[in-house]
Design a protein that fits this description.
This protein has helices at 3-12, 14-30, 51-67, 82-91, 111-119, 134-144, 160-168, 177-185, 208-217, 237-241, 247-278, 290-300, 305-308, 320-327, 339-345, 364-368, 383-395, 397-424, and strands spanning 39-44, 72-77, 96-97, 122-125, 148-153, 171-174, 193-195, 225-229, 281-284, 311-313, 332-335, 351-355, 375-377. By secondary structure, it is an alpha/beta fold. The strands form two sheets. The protein has a seven-stranded parallel beta sheet, sandwiched between helices. A six-stranded parallel beta sheet has the order 10-9-8-11-12-13, sandwiched between helices. Helix 8 links the parallel strand 6 and strand 7 (193-195). The longest helix is centred in the middle third of the chain and has 32 residues, at 247-278. The radius of gyration is 22 Å and the shape is globular. The two termini are 23 Å apart.
């Protein structure tokens, strides 16, 4: 274990937890007198146009590296591009990344996937808005009858085929308590149904060189700016894929356009009050590629000139390593997206989540870890209330960071307990 990681583990309490669990971990890793290391197949990495979806995999691999360091992790991504693949390999040199698909009968159709199904001891479905890779997990169970689990998803409605699959799961960790309450109401046979949070809470990526270069070039100084992130009510992924929208996507886009200016105006009011009260700067940025242009259109361009001079528009997308290093220098982050607040939280930066009624249950995570005061239901909240909270955090920063510290302790506890449960499935 390198010194940088050892120092991190000491600071967060992970090292103590891992030390306590080493007898269990060693027993699992070595088996009954054998030298076989456990192998885990991780189905994750849903898309590369969203730093939250990119971060899921990095966070969960980090957790497995902490709590089961002897395991071989095999990532079966849905989508990675050249940049994300390179970041993965730099961050986790021992990580095995495979490509593969299922044939029409639901069997692995490629050599790498066939080998992974044959050799891996456990399949884990990574964090996301729901069980996105349901068919792949079902194929694992149908073909291998080996353990599988789900780590950190939200749920809305569970249909009968998914209920049947969850009945066979070894563990199911919801990322929010509302989803967990719903899951437990179904009375399914899965023996472990617990709160697990989103794997992004374990993100450790950084890119200080890129971040410092960007901040210097744009006159942004540590603790002297806030970050703001807009969002449409429904993210138009069809636009990013360059395809025609379906009838349902057209319906949702119409709803987004109806609320586009209303939602943006509230965030602009927060920006204006911040600049007027503090004279400090604002960074308008994006969590999803589509929001790069959106942030300029709805947040920056409509501002009065005297405010606009203090606002920096991030005109390009970024990966989670650079985003996290820049968020780490911000005073506060205010976002209509959920994962940027989580990423900021991992750097002890106060973050306010503005929840739109069309979003999933994931926002409940902020309440689950005790940050009730930093989540606002946007249709029920005037902009002045949000702006006042930003001012309150700014004026009482030590108290805000203590609040993050308390929440971090809870997050670490949840991570430790859920990983312990996951490890037991391959004991």
């Amino acid at each position: 274990m390198d010194q940088q990681r050892r120092d991190f583990l000491k600071q967060t309490g992970f090292l103590t937890a891992a030390s306590v669990m080493m007898p269990v971990i060693n027993a699992i890793a070595m088996g009954k007198g054998s030298q076989k290391k456990p192998k885990i197949l991780l189905r994750s990495s849903w898309q590369v146009v969203n730093i939250g979806d990119i971060s899921h995999s990095f966070g969960l691999i980090e957790l497995f590296n902490i709590y089961l360091p002897e395991a071989e992790i095999i990532l079966w991504p849905v989508s990675v591009d050249v940049e994300v693949d390179a970041l993965m390999r730099r961050s986790f040199p021992k990580l095995n990344i495979i490509q593969g698909r299922l044939d029409d009968s639901g069997k692995p159709a490629t050599t790498d996937l066939q080998k992974a199904f044959a050799e891996c001891d456990l399949m884990v479905h990574g964090s996301g808005p729901y069980v996105a890779a349901y068919k792949d997990v079902r194929a694992w169970w149908n073909n291998t009858k080996k353990p599988f689990g789900v780590y950190g998803v939200s749920l809305d409605e569970v249909d009968e085929p998914l209920k049947e699959l969850i009945d066979h799961a070894s563990f199911f960790f919801c990322r929010d308590s509302e989803s967990l309450k719903y899951l437990r109401s179904l009375n399914l046979k899965c023996p472990i149904q617990q709160l697990g949070l989103d794997a992004t809470f374990a993100l450790k990526l950084q890119n200080e060189q890129k971040a410092e270069a960007y901040l210097t070039a744009n006159g942004l100084k540590r603790g002297k700016f806030i970050c703001v992130i807009p969002r449409l009510r429904y993210t138009p992924y069809w636009q990013m894929r360059g395809v025609e929208p379906t009838v349902e996507e057209k319906r949702k886009y119409a709803i987004s356009l109806q609320h586009k200016e209303i939602d943006a105006a509230k965030l602009r009011e927060v920006m204006i009050k911040w600049v007027k009260d503090t004279g400090l700067k604002v960074l308008a940025c994006a969590e999803v590629t589509q929001q790069v242009a959106l942030s300029k259109e709805v947040l920056v361009d409509p501002l009065p000139d005297e405010i606009k001079k203090n606002v920096v528009w991030r005109d390009s997308f970024w990966l989670p390593d650079e985003a996290r290093s820049i968020y780490a220098k911000a005073r506060v982050l205010i976002s209509y997206e959920m994962h940027s607040p989580i990423i900021a939280f991992t750097e002890k930066v106060p973050a306010i989540y503005l929840k739109q009624p069309t979003d999933t249950r994931k926002g409940q995570m902020w309440r689950d870890i005790g940050l009730n005061d930093w989540i606002f239901e946007i249709d029920e909240t005037p902009a002045s209330q949000i702006a006042n909270m930003v001012s309150h955090i700014h004026s009482n920063y030590t108290d805000a960071q203590k609040q993050i510290g308390i929440a971090s302790t809870l997050v670490n506890k949840i991570q430790r307990e859920t990983m312990h449960e996951a490890i037991q499935t391959i004991k």
